Amino acid sequence: MKVVCVGGGPAGLYLSILLKRQDPAHDITVHERDPEGSTYGWGVTYWRGLLDKLHAHDPESALAIDAGSVRWSDGIAHVRGLATRHSGDQGFGIGRHRLLEILAARARELDVRIEHTREITAENVPPADLVVAADGVRSALRTRHADAFGTEVRSGRNHYIWLGTTKVFDSFTFAFVETEHGWIWCYGYGFGADRSTCVVECAPETWTGLGLDRAGEDEGLELLEKLFVDVLDGHRLIGRSSTDGAPQWLNFRTLTNRTWHHGNLVLLGDAAHTTHYSIGAGTTLALEDAMSLAGALRTHRELPRALTAYEQDRKAALLPVQSAARYSAQWYEHLPRYIQLPPEQMFALLGQRHSPLLPYVPPQLYYRLDRAAGRLETLRRFKRWLGPKVARSVQTRSLTSGRK
């Protein structure tokens, strides 16, 4: 089979690896518009479950990813000068640049062609049996056929910016700072020996009140460094400015598609779906997409059946993740509802932000019920039963209102 993959991110590169492992005779080319080594972004997070899957699908690249990652098991929240630490599952961080280096080297080892600095659009796609759109949330190939895919995009309320820092966090760190214009907060996690990712978020009225909407990159970074001086320990923040020197503040865009394939064109990763960054699942989901698509192409000889099976498998797997991401984003958009709680209660509900019940139960009552549920099996069963019912009801209302 001749495969053209548009987009040289983790999803496209990993799919090429898996397809070559399944059949070395496949003719696979990955096209990436940016120069090699010029990737955006800082570090990505993942969890033990993904690492186990990577080892099962391609041990060679999994070993390199494992060796290139940092680890943490604690989460710590800073609020009003107080810190609360909780232990949890082991998390991993790896630089996006390093991850792409590993995957590209492995793909080339398997005779995948990787071509950089060539822009592929709907008008100049090379002929192929299968064309994979792995070109991100702004996918040119998907946009060309947006009606066929049934693409929908919803923008979140809050503003956020993705930064790096020389501060090395030894745990997944949250910091909430109160200003005269409202709360602003950051998420920080390490991804190397001398760097961490630091994502800053705030409500639009805080963003404009602090003047972040008008500040240039240097001025904005200086202000953020002052606001988060305690958690940064005096370390600097590192930006990625646009061509006009403006900082890269964004509103998160939740993207969905009614169908993921059209003819011989199939969507992969962020071109197919996005989930809010606060659950740290974007790279994991993209790599799992690649695993699913490769598996469907191995199982089904007819391309339409393979693409349909892939879409059905991933849509089912994404339902709980998308629900969790939606509620996580809403938790931060309604931060004042939770931030006045004692720090240990606030952090406990931060960990529960994926729950469909939390928005409908007074926070302190939810905290007490959750503590009780941890001790009583009857309450645990009731919570597990009620949560999905509420989620389905909310999702149905959302879909119905979206059709009006």
Continuous helix count: 15
Which stretches are low in confidence, meaning pLDDT under 50 for 5 or more residues running? 389-404
Biggest β-sheet description: 9 strands, mixed
Structural class: alpha/beta
Provide the helix percentage. Answer: 40-55%
Q: What's the overall geometry?
A: globular
Number of strands: 15
Strand residue content = 25-35%
Q: What is the average of the pLDDT values? A: 90
Query: What is the N-to-C order of secondary-structure elements (H for helix, E for strand)?
Result: EHEEHHEEHEEHHEEEEHHHEEEEHHHHHH
What gyration radius follows from the Cα positions, in whole Å? Answer: 22 Å
The termini sit apart by: 43 Å
